[in-house]
Amino acid sequence: IGARVAIKLHALYIQTTREKIKDVDYLYFSESHSHATEQKLVKDDLDSYMNTIDRVIFIEDEVTTGNTILGIVNILRETYGPKVKFSVASILNGMDEEARKKYEEHGIALHYLVKTNHSKYPEMVSFYRTEGTYIDGKNSDTLMEYKELEINGYVNARRLISSDEYENSCENLWKKLKNNISDSSGNQLVIGTEEFMYPALFVAAKMEELGINAVSHSTTRSPIAVFDEEEYPIHVANEIGSLYEEERITYIYDLKKYDKVYVITDAIKAGLEKDLINVLKKNGNEDITIVRWKE
After folding, report:
1. Which of 27, 30, 96, 234 is 20 to 30 Å from the Cα of 75, by its Cα?
2. What pLDDT, on the 0 to 100 scale, is given for residue 33?
């Protein structure tokens, strides 16, 4: 979401990350409502630009208490001074009145599409009684057959970049991938890997423009409760190893059978994709291509 907003604004863009980037200094902060609390911003990149910008805009799917972003704002102000203004835009906002007043006192503008009331969540969740399906797909013994494609021109959005450059690089990724798409029929799935989501969404959208019936999905570190009830949105949790780090646990939910699957990733360590490949195969997916985006 943040990448798309930055592109529309022709703004500079950087995403927070939990990944390790060599030879850089970070600004560290904690995400209090997260399963993986440590987040980072590349300080070296911010050092070069913070004195040249007027406003930092935080883009989120949901702001719950606002504490995480407020913590980042305080770190940025302590590091770079009070000159820069701050805004927050999210799809959902669950902040209570006290939290909203705190943002007002700090001069942080809030924008959102839907206001939520978290006090009703326990009551809503109590309706669901039948636990969904949990599948342990970690440490697969065999690596099943798949195709692999390497495409150059990678731009790392964990570093501060021009959003226009990012969009152009995603466009070039799509053009090179399109040359390898021999069949546009049937249902097709495009998977992103963890933080690396936007290029997969971009590719799936481009497929739709060609008339391909495409959907996008991502692996994630987020453990989500699953229930069998039809009204509940997520029913099956597949627990798999990460494509980035051998001991890391990740998840992918509610997989189906597709005619073609493309996994778009910037993970370059071969072999760690076997859990994902095998769980895709167990859901009936035979035509799988790993697309590695490299520099």
Report:
1. 96
2. 55
Kindly state the tokens that stand for 82. 């009070």
Q: What is the pLDDT of residues 103-148, one digit of tens each?
A: 999 999 999 999 998 887 788 778 787 899 999 999 877 667 899 9
Q: Tokens 């050092």 appear where?
A: 47
Residues 6+ apart with CB under 8 A from 81: none
Distances (CA, A) of 259 to 103, 214, 264, 280: 48, 10, 16, 12
Cα–Cα distance measured from residue 47 to residue 42, given in angstroms and rounded to the nearest whole number: 9
Q: How far apart are CA 36 and CA 251, in angstroms?
A: 14
**Cα(120)–Cα(115) distance, rounded to whole angstroms?**
13
Q: What sign does the CA torsion over 106, 157, 254, 175 have?
A: positive
Q: Is 253 in contact with 238 (CB distance < 8 Å)? A: yes
SS3 of 62, please? strand
Measured distance CA(211)–CA(22) in Å, rounded = 41
Instruction: Label residues 153-188 b or e (16+ Cβ within 10 Å = b).
Output: ebbbbbebbbbeebbebbebbbebbeeebeeeeeeb
Partners of 161 in beta bridges:
13
Q: What is the pTM of this model?
A: 0.93
Question: Which DSSP symbol is given to 46?
Answer: H
Q: What single-letter DSSP state applies at residue 61?
A: E
| Tens of pLDDT, residues 149-158 | 999 999 999 9
User: What six digits make up the tokens of 59?
Assistant: 């883009």
